[in-house]
Each structure stands twice: as C-alpha cells, then as structure tokens.
C-alpha cells in the first residue's frame, strides 16, 4: 500500500513539473528550455479552367482575368518546453491552402480543389503531430498540443502538403529544425 | 432479379402479419422471426440496384497541361503525379470514376514528374479490389514495374489492365519509393504516390465484404499511422526498419493502426507485401484484411507472414473506406476519408 502511495506521489510530482514548467520557461525567455520552428512553402500554378468557368469551382469565387493562376501554400509551426527525459510539452500546427493569384502574388480569392491534405510530424517523437484531409475545399488547418513523460526534446518538424485537382496531384514538404 | 425482391417482400409481410397474430405462442413467434431474417438475407442480393448507364460523353483526351506546366514553372521542389483514363474509359474530370462495357480493357496514362534535386526510384503496382494485378505498364506485362526519374524529368507511362469482371471496382495504382542504402528510411520524402478510382463495368454494385473488429484501446494520436514491428503491445508505434531473417520462413510481426478521427468509426483495408508481392495474413488465409476502428482508438494485428525473399522486405498499405463511391453525382469528390497510407518497411539482412 505504501509503495502504491509513493508511486502516486512521484507521478504527481512529475505531472506538476510537466504542467507548470512550460509557463515558467516562457516567462523566463530561456532559449534552452523552449525551442520553436516554422516553415512556409508557396507555389503558384496556372488555372486549369478559363476564368469564365472558375465560378463553377466554388460558390463565392469570382476570379478576374488577372487572377487566373493557382497558388498552393503550406505552413507549419512547432514549439516545445520542459525538461528532456523528465517532462515535456509541445504544440504544433499545419496548414495548406489554395487560392487564386497572378504569377507574382496572391489575390486572396479562395480556390476549391478536390482534395487538400496537410500533416506535421515532430522529431524525434514521430507520432507527435497532427494531420487533416479536406475535400472540395481551399484550406485545411489542424493544431495539436500534448505532453510526454520521459521523452527526449523535440528538435524539428516535417510537414507534408498535397493538393489534388482533376486527377493531378502536387506534393511538397516543409521542414524545420533537425529534419 | 426484381421478381425475387417482390416475392421476398411479400413473404416478409405475410409472415410478419402471421407473427403478430400468434403473439401468445412464444415458440411460434421465434420461428417466425427467424424465418423473416432468413428471407431477408436470401433476397438481399436480389435487391434492385441502379440500372447501369454507360455515359455518352468520352473522357478528356489529354492531361490538363495548363496545371501541370504551371507547377513546373513554379520552380518549387516536389513530386507531381497525374492520372488520366483513355477517352473511351469515359472518365470524369476528377478522374475518379470510369465506365466500361464488359470485356473491355482499362487503359490509362500515369504521369510522374520529379521536381526534386535527386533521382527518385519507384516501383509501380496495380491493385483491383485490393488484389495485386498483372498489368501492362510502358509496354511490359508484369505485377511490378520499376521506374527511375531524374530531377526535372516528367514521364508518361501507358497502363493497361485486362480481364476486369462485371461490377463496381476499387482501382488503385501505387508508386512505392525504392530507398537507396544511403537513405534514412525514417526521413524519406514522398514514400507513396497513388491514384485511387472507381471502375464501373456494367454495374454499380461493389463486392460485399465483412469487416473484422479487433481489440481497441483509446488513443489520443492525431496522426494516422500504420506501423509494422515485433511488439504485440498496442501502445508501441515505434517503426522497425531492419531485421534479421530467421532460418524458418515463418515470421511473426504486428501491424499497429489507429483511427485519429474524433467523430466517426472508420473502415479500412490492409494489404501486406513482401518486397513487391502481395502476401497473405497466414492465420486468416487472406491477402486483404478488412477491419474497422472506432473513433480515437488504436489496435494491433498479428501477422504470420510467409516471406519468400531472403533479402526481401515487409510493408503494408492501409486504405480508408474500401469500396466507397469516390465521387458524388454532381461531380465532386465524396466527403469521406479515402487516403492510402504506407507503413514503414522492414528490410531483412
């Protein structure tokens, strides 16, 4: 019985450290306790349909003649805090979005694709991360936070972004940190 | 067919009326219930299906090069794939549905563009209803076709698949990356490229299958995973990349899977491979395993694999929602998960 109580007490101490340390690390602005990373990818591609047909792709799309390029943008962020191998917490997000644009920039008009995917996986814990698939949409976003007892510190992230339209699939990755 | 359906309905209503009138006799009521269930079961295959209509319009003749070339012109690093059925396959704009007459061969083109800095090597496999097929790829008939694509290169391969039976089918063309010895398997980019589509051959009826339910444990993973390793613990999602093959060919592994969706139970199909050949789950005598997982759960499946290749490899793919219509009637992609994922590959040394 005493052993059981001792185990609960030790666990409680670890949990306390795990939940309180992230905020402590932030307050102290200590770069050794907290690391962050992010990466952004942008790509443009010409429209598969002439502008007059573009409205069929989405209810609110009114592409002008100068905005007949398509853009796929991918992005991810991550950060962790805590004491490695004792208690760590992390937060990450990933986003892919498509929109109309020109050869030089985006027009801010949503472009619906058949399938849009985004995921992010943190290293070294390759099951810490998140993913999302959207259908007939122009944006997918997902964020995730968690904590881990006894885990190594996170050092990087890799994100996969994919857009599919009319059977054509464009796949890219964004990487940050030790990836 | 429709006659059986009418007869079945008539019998069900007749027996239901009889059962209601004999409520006092429990044995009779039970027998009536069993009879109704049997009749329903027997007449199920005869339920009328939508009448198959071969579309008049033909599919697109060419790839949409306006999209493809713009990807290339962007100058970014990535992999581009495109799939297009021949016009006579009557493919939709989304290239998710094809309509064939019985006896026709399925003909298509598969394009891979390598816009990374390195040569990429893949082997191409074709699965029909989750069974590996022999098919003609780039003029050669085989079950597996290796391809190597240089940086900046874009290659179109002709694909022909013969002997497609009448019915609705799940078609899957996959390209699995071949790693070099110097590659880190844990960090490989673009390990799987795929195109999934429905092929309707004079019917809209998919094969009927039953799904296995395994022990499930709550999971808070938000990344879908399929991992093969030697741990039977349901929590162990660590990827195993190398193993030593024993003298006996009977090897035992565990496939770890999860459903990270918070809302829905999901149906899946797992297909295991040894090198480039589909293999069986020996204990099940099946080379496809259909199963379902409740939302936010994980599970583990034992694989007793008969591996043929001394220096082969073990890997698997996991497919969301087998035998689903991928496209809605108004020509949009169905709002259901239809992704294909690949596991880690265990290489034997």
Average of per-residue pLDDT values of chain A: 71
Based on Cα principal axes, name the global outline of chain B.
globular
Shape of chain A: elongated
Low-confidence stretches of chain A: 16-33, 42-65
Radius of gyration of chain A: 21 Å
Structure description:
- The complex is a heterodimer of chains A (about 180) and B (about 350).
- Chain A has about 180 residues and is an alpha+beta fold.
- Chain A has one domain.
- Chain A has helices at about 1-30, 50-55, and strands spanning about 35-45, 70-85, 85-100, 105-110, 115-125, 130-135, 140-150, 155-165, 170-175.
- In chain A, the strands form two sheets. In chain A, strands 1, 2, 3, 4 and 7 form a five-stranded antiparallel sheet that branches. In chain A, strands 6-5-8-9 form a four-stranded antiparallel sheet, with no helix packed on it.
- Chain A is elongated and about 70 Å long.
- The model of chain A is unreliable at about 15-35 and about 40-65 (pLDDT under 50).
- With about 350 residues, chain B is mostly beta strands.
- Chain B has three domains: about 1-45; about 65-200, Immunoglobulin-like (Sandwich); about 215-349, Immunoglobulin-like, CATH 2.60.40.10.
- Chain B has three helices and 22 strands.
- In chain B, strand 16 and strand 17 (about 275-280) form a beta hairpin.
- The longest helix of chain B has 20 residues, at about 1-20.
- Chain B starts with a helix and ends with a strand.
- The chains are: A alpha+beta (about 180), B mainly beta (about 350).
- The interface between A and B is large, with 38 and 46 residues.
- Strand 9 of chain A pairs antiparallel with strand 1 (about 80-85) of chain B.
